[in-house]
């Protein structure tokens, strides 16, 4: 028997995160492309990011047939937030007049790369990356590489760069509560044994 869940944040009603989710405005438009394997994940940070930003959209799938139309918005310059040799530091985009459409793939690194491979429109976008982000607060997962962030952390860091002096740390409130709740549920001993190495 499944527990009743909040229809908005998809958390069990006793652990609803909605009171912590902000309602933030941004000049930057954020398009999150989520791999289907992430939808049911207990720590679905992409959903939290989309809920906390007015100018954000979350799409779920592997192949996005309407992606060329989504990317061809005349009021925005589209770019892909994804590291790689051809990626340029996001700081170079902060002062441009036309706001960005920041496309963010969401999934494991392998699944995110698959999204890029299956959607050639993504591969054609200019690629940007975060030059210096704070260490991840995602204490329940071992980062695959130094500087790796969860989707909500990457979006927050990107918006902090693009929309300075405005800050978007409020976006991380439900994420922090979610992490703390997961740690409390597993107990300190289990958390220390499995995640503090």
Automatic annotation (TrEMBL):
The keyword Cytoplasm does not apply. Pfam families: DTW (PF03942). Its EC number is 2.5.1.25. InterPro entries: DTW, DTWD2/TAPT. Keywords: S-adenosyl-L-methionine, Transferase, tRNA processing. One of its GO terms (molecular function) is tRNA-uridine aminocarboxypropyltransferase activity. This is tRNA-uridine aminocarboxypropyltransferase. One of its GO terms (biological process) is tRNA processing. It comes from Pseudomonas chaetocerotis. It comes from the Bacteria. Belongs to the TDD superfamily. DTWD2 family. Residues 2-187 form the DTW domain.
